[in-house]
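> @MW can you paste both from yesterday?
MW: sure, first one:
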Amino acid sequence: MERKRGKLQWDFPRNITSMRLMTQLGADYGLPASTCLAGTDIQEKALADPAVVVSGAQELRLIHNLVEHLGHIPGLGIEAGKRYHFTTFGALGLAIVCSPNMLSALDISMRYFHLTFALTHFRVEETGSEIHVVMDDSGLPEAVRSFIVERDSAALINVQRELYSSRPVLMGLQLSYPEPPDVSAHEAFYRIRPVFGCASNLAVLDVATLMAPLPQANELALGAAEEQCRHCSIITSPEAGLRQLYGNIWRVMSPRCRIWTASRPLSA
């Protein structure tokens, strides 16, 4: 069976959260916010406003700036992707963590793909004991393509590891761009050696691991989160979405889940 997301352009509106994360990435490497945001028409103070909505093109401009000034850093896109946690995605993130298993969480992510910050196009295919996640980078500028593939794939794996860290999820990774001189960052994060220069970007996930029950699975909380996703305006920030959802689902969560949720920060 194959699941495909709708034919959406990567330039769909999105919350400013992702641009804030990447501006912080630049700052951590000594790049001023003004340089990160050059040409985006976004002021630095807007990064702190959870109500700001930006376009994919504005986020892409920021990525161009990062790559122009920091592209010499091995695995820069991976470093970006590691900053995306399930809390980053607001209502969608809560739906993911409350899902019965990671396969269900992946299906929910595909259904509400417009609530993510991905610039690649995801296609999910079930092939026996494996799940193949194809990350289509066509239409993206060549200069930033490898960064975006690294970021989107690293974010995918990072969230899955947060949900279920005791078993490996990623079984193989094919990347379409040439092998860089230094792949140590790739091997350290993915915990496997990617195959470079392939026809497409493809993450191979283990079905058995994806079917393992998630520790915070909660059917009622999942229903509330999905309802929020269905009615979620792009103007609503991930942080605001989480806070609104807490009021709706707190009473239906198990005590264990309440304790765990309360211990997690709302910030991305």
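MW: second:
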Amino acid sequence: MSEGSSAVLLSTCAEACGELSELVAAIYGLVSADGSAATLKQDKSVFTLADGLVQALLRRLLAPHVASIVGEEDESEISVDRPPFRAGELIAPAELEALVLRTRDRVDALSGQLAGGAFADLTPFIDPIDGTREFASRKGEQCTICIGFATPTGAAHAGIVYRPLTSPPTFALGCAAEGFVMSLGERLGGGLVRAGGAGNKALLLLEGEASCYIQDRGVSRWDSCAAQAVLEAHGGCFAKLAALKPYSNTCGLFALPPSEMANLEEYRQAVREAAARHPPAYD
């Protein structure tokens, strides 16, 4: 899948939320024990250390890739750059500093895997802890991290809702505009390999780093010709997405390495099922 696809963006957000879960759980423990990591805002709504730190860390994840970010919390007094880590008047205790640093480094690493500026037309709307009152009253299983992505017109494009305090954490994500790709990924049950370039993706197949290359849009012939020739020469396939027909520039594509050709019909059935639920954008 393309580095600039919403499926990859949401998958990365899910991984980031997974990394944040340990930190959220640690702060939840403090709030539940003695309320030391929570306070009230001017409007009398609850604000916790988790609200501030999670939003700041998600900003680090997404800021290099989008034009602007809208978060619920005021970030003017939130800092995750260096200890002491703070969110307004709330300061992370010393015993949390190593966890904050570790989480920050992992989130930064995930950010580096996304294509820079690839989502400049999307605006993330972040609620770092949705259900803060429940968070502060020992009902953490009702709390979620919400990350939505809006188009320039304000339309909801993609999103993830993540429960960090259930065991295990639970979440749902989706993008109606990329329903085919996401449905196919769910059907195949595999993870995403972040990669750019049609030629590079063909090499990843031959090197055993990925099992299939499926793209819900066309690519130019100068991108696809060499990749197709090499894959087919080694016993793989490179074809139209919806049918095993010669590839053309204006359709989605489907490619397998020789090592996966024995499973060709299984892949084709998965494509047919996903297409029945969400017709591909280009094919």
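> thanks! Helices lie at 6-34, 49-62, 97-112, 132-135, 179-188, 198-206, 221-233, 264-277.
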